[in-house]
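Forgive a beginner's question, but might I ask you for the amino acids of a protein and the C-alpha cells describing how it folds?
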Amino acid sequence: MYQKKRTSPFTIFLRILFTACLIYSVVFIFQNSLQIAEQSSLRSEQVQQVVNEVAGTVGLGPFSLHVIRKMAHFTEFMMMGFWFMLCLRVYTQHFIKHISWPLFLGLGTAVTDETIQIFVDGRGSSVKDVWIDFAGFLVGLFVALVILMFFRMCVILFVHRHDDREFVEEEPEPQPQWEPVPQQQKEEEKSYDTSVEIEY
C-alpha cells in the first residue's frame, strides 16, 4: 500500500511563516488603499522626507511626492510577489509549473486595490497604477526565483561535492616484465646438431 511521505517540521514552519508574510503583505496593501486622501498624503510626505534624506547621502534625489507614491505602490507589490513565490515553493516542488497562479492572483490584487480606491473619500484609481503594481509584483517573483535557484544550486553542489573522486584515473596495471635469457641457455639453443645421416 502506498504511504504518503511525511512533511518535515521545518517545511511546516516555512509554510506557516511564508503564508503569514504573504497574508500580511496583502492586508497592508488594502489598508493603505482604505486610507482617506488626507491620511494617505500625510504618510506619503513622511516617507518622502525619509527617502530624500537617505537618497541625499548618496547624491540622489530629491524625489517628488508623485514619484514617492508610485515607488510605494511598486515596493509593496514587489514584497507581495516575493512572499508569494516563496510560499508557492514550500507547498510544491513544481513551482515553475504552477507560476500562472501567482501571476493571476497578483494582477487580481492590483485591480482590486485600485477598485477599492474608487470608493474611498478623495482617492481615485488609475490603469497606470495597476500596471505599476503588477510590474512590482513580477519583480518580486523574479527576485525570489533567483534566490531559490541559487540555493538549489548550492544544495546540489554540496550533495555531489565528493563525486569527482569517482572519476580519478585508476592506476595502470603493471605490465609483465620479460626476464633476459641467460647467455648459457642461448648457446645451448644455438648448438643444435646439423649433421644428416645418409644411408647407403
